[in-house]
Write a structure and sequence with these properties.
It is built from 16 helices and eleven strands. With 423 residues, the chain is of the alpha+beta class.
């Protein structure tokens, strides 16, 4: 570990990681819980996300308004998010307000009362959130695509859950879930900014240092088989939204740096091959890009594009042309150098944000149980060669491994010939 990254594990199993950045006057603090949508029973899909909402609804000492006002009145803010594999409650504030931020976050995680009347109201809020996502074609197509890629597996369910499962959640369900998943061994406190590690440990121990690590560990659900497929969905929209993708690489996969570079070459911004050859050369879209997400045991990779339904077949062909180029030709030296510089630049620029730094050290601990330094990342990126990318691409970018999902305007028909044959 470098001298500005420190880690302490309390007697009850709770971990604390900090990064000292003394050139700023702010801090970002997060309490991370190693539980996400993949840890849910099928009949309680969405409970992790719903609980995240409910922890803002009051504790024994603070009302929902007190929680909202606590950091905002001091110039900071509170927020939270739920993913497939973890939940995070975080705050950003002035360095002098860090004890307050840790106190409020800890109070929410450890002492929430989950009022019944607030549950009734918050279910309505979450149902509206579901409608919001369904009204967004970009969000909805990803939900549909994931449901195919991880069919019959928790990773294939929407993080937000379903109307019936959320409506059926009870207050007892939430308390049982907290007891099972919010135990000290599943908690990680992460802080970046102008602070002192020993002081963070002292404050955290006074707030969360009691209690035994009595909950359960993650129940691993084996991945289901991946079947390549094509699907068409329709909504009253103007554009066709397309995803061409496959299962990707897990966090610690030995080829992850090869995929990072290949992903940058393909879809890393306006200079990428897909952007230049589909948007700039042919004008087939406004928005196109690649996505690359990793889990503990799998991942997602693909291309998203919004286009006119008449262009869908042409776009698909052009995407596979770029795949084939990666499989058959080494990335030219100058393009590889530029892609490495772009990737390293994004990593370094992200460090300007205390939130990003807090998130990065937390994920390093959650997924690798150690700090992954920027120097190590840069070294791994620089080691990648054009021949390695081509060899990796021969199998990873095999078109026969790619599934497709389209969300099209109602009564559309043109431009979807290949898909119609396979649905």
């Amino acid at each position: 570990m470098t001298d500005y990254i420190r880690k302490t594990t309390l007697d009850n199993g709770l971990r604390i990681v900090t990064e000292s950045v003394d050139r700023v006057r702010s801090v970002a603090a997060g309490i991370w819980v190693r539980t996400g949508s993949r840890d849910e029973e099928e009949n309680k899909a969405g409970i992790t996300h719903f609980l995240e909402h409910m922890l803002f609804k009051g504790t024994a000492e603070r009302s929902a308004y007190d929680i909202a006002l606590s950091l905002e009145s001091a110039g900071g803010y509170l927020n939270a998010f739920t993913s497939n594999e973890y939940t995070c409650y975080y705050a950003r504030c002035l360095d002098t307000r860090l004890p307050l931020a840790l106190d409020v976050l800890s109070d929410m995680v450890a002492n929430s009362t989950l009022p019944e009347e607030e549950m009734v109201k918050e279910k309505k809020v979450v149902l509206e959130e579901m409608k919001m996502y369904r009204d967004s074609p970009e969000d909805y197509i990803f939900e549909l695509f994931n449901s195919h890629l991880f069919r019959n597996h928790p990773l294939g369910r929407p993080i937000i859950g379903f109307e019936d499962t959320v409506n059926n959640l009870t207050r007892s369900d939430l308390f049982d879930y907290i007891r099972d998943r919010y135990h000290p061994g599943n908690l990680l406190v992460s802080v970046s900014g102008n602070m002192n590690h020993d002081e963070v440990v002292r404050v955290t121990e006074s707030l969360l240092g009691k209690g035994a690590d009595a909950g359960s560990d993650r129940k691993e659900v084996p991945l289901t088989d991946y079947d390549v497929g094509c699907s068409i969905f329709q909504k009253p929209i103007e554009q066709t939204h397309m995803i061409v993708g496959r299962r990707g690489l897990w966090y610690d996969h030995p080829d992850k740096y090869l995929l990072l570079l290949a992903n940058t070459v393909l879809g890393g911004g306006m200079s990428s091959r897909l952007h230049q050859n589909i948007r700039e050369k042919y004008g087939y879209c406004y928005s196109i890009g690649t996505f690359n997400q990793s889990f503990t045991d799998s991942g997602l990779f693909g291309v998203y594009i919004g286009t006119d339904r008449e262009y869908a077949d042409h776009v698909r062909e052009l995407i596979f042309v770029e795949f084939e180029t990666l499989r058959s030709q080494p990335v030219p030296p100058q393009e590889l150098k530029e892609s490495k510089s772009q990737l390293k630049g994004k990593l370094l620029l992200s460090q300007e944000s205390m939130n990003n730094r807090m998130t990065r050290i937390a994920k390093s601990e959650l997924y690798f149980n150690r700090y992954i330094s920027l120097d190590e990342l840069v070294e791994k990126i620089d080691e990648v060669t054009d021949e390695q990318i081509m060899e990796f691409s021969k199998s990873f970018f095999d078109p026969d491994q790619y599934s497709e999902a389209l969300l099209t305007p109602e009564d559309s028909g043109a431009g979807l010939n290949r898909l119609k044959e396979q649905v």
